[in-house]
Design brief:
Distance between the termini: 54 Å
Low-confidence stretches: none
Number of helices: 11
Number of strands: 9
Strand order of the largest sheet: 5-4-3-6-9
Helix content: 40-55%
Mean pLDDT: 90
Order of helices and strands: HHHHHEEHEHEHEHEEEHEH
Structural class: alpha/beta
């Protein structure tokens, strides 16, 4: 029965993840194209052989440590269901803080916004879902990521996001609609992990692209580069927001102050 399959899968995932039952349910929802209420109502039903085989395959992949988001090809972010694949980072709840701060800090009705290293397009899409009058450029150096972000923008039907390839700011001036290539808000979740960080050998990040995780200079290289370059691309009084590691705050604040930024936090 469905209930038995779930119970055995949860046992198989013990020690692999923090919430084995919940993850087993997520995998089975993907297999059966249903939500959790289906298990409660119809737990005594028998699964087809093909569904059971696919579910077992998914559970085995999870047992090897592969992230659930890559297995089912989806992840929710800011209540938006995004398609994900191994060309990009999996969007995480931590990054919703960046979205919250952006919405708090930039209160212009018609803002021009740049999302650097967009990956799945998660940050740009979250902002677009809240501010339909903003014009948002979302860029990534990886062609596969650009294709994925464009797909998500198309699937979710947003008309105020332009996605294009750019190595940070390299193609922005040629492509943006922002007057003078200057933005009211620049946001980024860049690579900021030190190559020697032991966490790179643990959990989901083992399966994610290193190029989206690791930066030189003990993880600061891309943060510093964006800080240096963003001044040229911000309007007077414009805002730069970057996600960084919990241990990088003080050094990054000092660097931004040294670059002439004000209201650094």
């Amino acid at each position: 029965s469905i209930a038995d399959c779930l119970r055995f899968a949860a046992l198989d995932l013990q020690g692999v993840c923090d919430e084995p039952r919940r993850e087993a349910e997520v995998l089975l929802c993907a297999v059966l194209a249903c939500d959790r209420s289906y298990f409660i109502a119809y737990g005594d039903r028998t699964m087809t052989n093909s569904a059971r085989d696919l579910f077992c395959h998914y559970v085995e992949r999870r047992q090897r440590g592969e992230p659930v988001a890559y297995i089912i090809g989806q992840r929710e972010f800011w209540s938006l269901l995004l398609t994900v694949n191994q060309s990009t980072l999996i969007p995480r709840p931590d990054t919703e803080i960046l979205v919250e701060k952006a919405l708090e800090c930039c209160v212009k009705e018609h803002a021009y916004v740049l999302d650097l290293g967009t990956g799945t397009g998660a940050i740009a899409l979250a902002l677009a879902s809240e501010r339909s009058a903003w014009k948002i450029d979302a860029v990534d150096v990886q062609e596969d990521a650009v294709s994925l972000a464009r797909f998500n923008v198309s699937q979710l039907g947003f008309k105020n996001i332009a996605v294009y390839p750019s190595h940070w700011f390299s193609a922005v001036e040629k492509t943006t609609a922002a007057p003078g290539a200057r933005f009211d808000l620049i946001v980024s979740n860049p690579p900021y992990i030190d190559v020697k960080d032991v966490h790179l050998q643990m959990g989901d990040v083992r399966f994610e692209p290193r190029s989206a995780l690791v930066a030189d200079q003990e993880g600061y290289a891309d943060l510093f580069f964006i800080a240096r370059m963003a001044r040229t691309f911000l309007v007077d009084g414009g805002i730069l927001l970057m996600e960084h590691a919990f241990s990088q705050g003080e050094k990054l604040r000092n660097y931004l102050l040294g670059m002439g930024y004000s209201d650094v936090a």
